[in-house]
Amino acid sequence: MKADNNHEIQFEKNNFNIAIAASRYNFQITEKLVNGALDFLKIYNQNTKETEIFWVSGAFELPLLCKNIFQIKKPDGIIAIGAVIKGDTPHFEYISNQCARGIMSISLEVSKPISFGVLTTENYQQAIDRTGEKTANKGYEAAMSLWESLSLFKNNL
Predict the structure, then answer these.
(1) Intervals of the chain under pLDDT 70
(2) What is the rounded CA–CA span in Å between residue 29 and residue 25?
(3) Neighbours of 70 (CB within 10 A)
(4) So where are the chain's domains?
(5) Could you tell me the CA-to-CA distances from 110 to 31, 50, 60, 71, 104 in Å, in that order?
(6) Which of 73, 101, 139, 144 could anchor a disulfide with 37, C-beta 3.0 to 4.6 Å?
(7) Does residue 7 have an active-site annotation?
(8) How far apart are CA 51 and CA 56, in angstroms?
């Protein structure tokens, strides 16, 4: 039995203005994630040709990029894409934690969704696996997550 207060997302084509913020660090990974996000948008977003992709050097720079994209371009939402791969130092923890914290902070500040398509993996092979070669492409999934949030906000809130 379906409750009256249950809001389910129907995947329908829409005209959302979506931007992609991506890290060039580990480009061989992030490029595949961006392409996965674009694959999802080609199916559901009528504005795919207008989707802008903004590149920064690394995942640490993504939160500020997202903030500036919202201020200047005013999209409905952003797909944040990056790949932080664990090394021999605690640098991995600092970058991944601050990236996640910064992206969440910006999303709450502007009251608009940012999907977290930033991989945080133990090794390079795990990152490759998440680009769609062995499992689902996490860029595609990040685009789907953003789409669900935007649809919910548009239709039910």
Answers:
(1) 1-13, 46-49, 133-135, 156-157
(2) 9
(3) 22
(4) 18-156
(5) 27, 22, 19, 9, 10
(6) 139
(7) no
(8) 17
Residue of 67, 51, 54, 37 whose CA lies nearest to 130: 37
Q: What is the CATH number of domain 18-156?
A: 3.40.50.960
Look at the alpha carbons of 53, 146, 27, 64 in this order and tell me if their dihedral is positive or negative.
positive
Strand ranges for the chain from DSSP E: 18-23, 52-56, 77-85, 114-121
The token pair at 133 is 């070669």
What the block records as the tokens of 128 is 């490759």
Global pTM? Answer: 0.90
Query: One of 91, 101, 134, 154 is an active-site residue; which one?
Result: 91
pLDDT in tens, 89-114: 888 889 999 999 999 999 999 999 99
